[in-house]
């Protein structure tokens, strides 16, 4: 006779595959120009206490902070304290990322309005990404959104894989 675990084993994989396929991306309600149209996944607007993008059901586990180049420059200069506080809050997540909607070369060449020194900006990005979480420069909004969706999907797929392993291991014990 089939045990409960064997039944669960055969059902768990399609369920988890479905969970990844039907992932809903949460978009923070304060996002000014959200990436919504670039995502393949469905989205839902909610107010996120930290960060701009996450996964429905896992909003306290993974967070992505979106920065345009002007946002990034002000976050590294006059709004630095506020930004560092956010990076500190992001430490309580399993995974946290800062995604910049610009090329690294735009920042390094000082292609922004502020008179902030590009070398100081580079040093700041190095220091903060070393201390807190990765910063990815993804060119423009469309590419940044694709990168973000990929990070979110991979995170969810990894968690589903863990659940599958737990179920399989438990099944093996009967
Ligand atoms: Ca932001």
Walk me through this protein's architecture:
With 174 residues, this protein is α/β, with parallel strands linked by helices. It has a single domain (4-169), classed as 3-Layer(aba) Sandwich (Rossmann fold), CATH 3.40.50.10130. Helix content is 51%, strand content 16%. It is built from six helices and six strands, in the order H-E-E-E-E-H-H-E-H-H-E-H. The chain has helices at residues 4-21, 69-76, 80-90, 104-108, 118-131, 141-172, and strands at 24-28, 42-46, 53-55, 62-67, 95-100, 135-137. The strands form two sheets. Strands 2-1-3 form a three-stranded mixed sheet, with helices on one face. It has a three-stranded parallel sheet with strand order 4-5-6. Helix 1 packs antiparallel against helix 6. The radius of gyration is 19 Å and the shape is elongated. The two termini are 12 Å apart. The protein binds calcium ion. Residues 52, 65-67 line the site of calcium ion.
């Amino acid at each position: 006779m089939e045990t409960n675990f064997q039944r669960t084993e055969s059902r768990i994989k399609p369920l988890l595959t479905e969970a990844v396929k039907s992932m809903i991306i949460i978009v923070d309600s304060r996002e000014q120009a959200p990436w919504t149209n670039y995502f393949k996944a469905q989205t839902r607007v909610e107010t996120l206490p930290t960060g701009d993008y996450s996964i429905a059901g896992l909003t306290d586990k993974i967070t992505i902070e979106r920065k345009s180049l002007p946002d990034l420059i002000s976050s590294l200069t006059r709004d630095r304290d506020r930004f560092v506080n956010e990076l500190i809050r992001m430490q309580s997540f399993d995974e946290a990322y800062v995604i910049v909607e610009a090329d690294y070369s735009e920042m390094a060449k000082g292609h922004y309005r502020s008179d902030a020194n590009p070398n100081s900006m580079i040093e700041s990005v190095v220091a903060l990404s070393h201390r807190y979480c990765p910063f990815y420069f993804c060119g423009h909004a469309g590419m940044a959104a694709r990168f973000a969706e990929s990070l979110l999907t991979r995170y969810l797929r990894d968690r589903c894989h863990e659940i599958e392993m737990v179920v399989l291991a438990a099944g093996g014990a009967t």
